[in-house]
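Format notes (please read before filing issues)

Several people have asked whether sequences and structure tokens are stored in separate files. They are not. Every record keeps both together, in the order shown below: the sequence lines, then the token lines. Line labels are part of the format and must not be stripped during preprocessing.
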Amino acid sequence: MVRSHRTHVSGEWTARTAMTFTELLVSVTIVMALLGVVAPALSGARQSANAAVCVSNLRELGTTTFLYTKDNDPVGKGGSHPVLPWHLGFDYPGASYSYASEFIYGGFRTTVNHPDFPDSDVFVIPTEARPFNKYLAPGRGGRSPLRPYICPSDRSMATPLLGAGGAPPAMETRYASWEANGNSYAINWYWPFGVTDTYHNEYWDLPCMTLLGTAMLQAKVGGDASEFVLFMEGMMNAYVIDARPPDGSQGQSQLQTLGDGWHAKYSMYCVGFYDGHAEYRFIDTRYTTGSGYDIWPEPDTRWPAGCP
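Then the structure lines:
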């Protein structure tokens, strides 16, 4: 409410408005209450929009996967060559680095040397040498960011070592994954843990992983392909590091806490599947398999003969 006062000026009465301190406080309180109602809605809308961008990027990666597979199929039968270039960084001529990552199937060469894993492949392998970039960023090089690999909600560079359990990853870190890893989206390379021979995490023999990848992906057809997670956003990648089969056949994951993900929703992640579609959905990161998703090979996939 605003009060009106009349003041005599130069022989005429004029109106002057003024607000009391109490009225000011009431107005401020109303505005703050309205902001309290509107702000969460705006934040939720922004997170939903960011998740939509991430899903769109993952669909683009799915299309690129199809093109990469077709172009690298040596006998023209489809799926005879692994779609995932796990071997790339290890074989790159002249490259000398300390760690190999799940990010260099594409992505870009970082300007930030990862503080936890210095001189890793993401800092060393050139952008133009990464196979998916032939399709997603032809002619691009240097250390400039590439849009298809950036999730706008990305806020954590968490990249745990394979075979390591440990505590849940930090939700907020100094750098985003796209800054420290050159990519917001990790490729799924947890599946070697699920082969029917020995538990092979201590080997990581890349030629053998390539052979196993071929066999594993050839078995992912139909409904299996539509549920097999091929790409995942970085926070999910950090949480599924110790995922185990839900039947308890390989014990229980050390990470029994589910996180909020990058989009501020409980255990919700953007994932891309082997059949090319992508979703923003709930993933129980304690388990390798759940309703509508799978990160492991088929049960009868075996470690290649003659490999360690």
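For reference, the curators noted about this record: The chain is about 30% helix and 10% strand. The radius of gyration is 26 Å.
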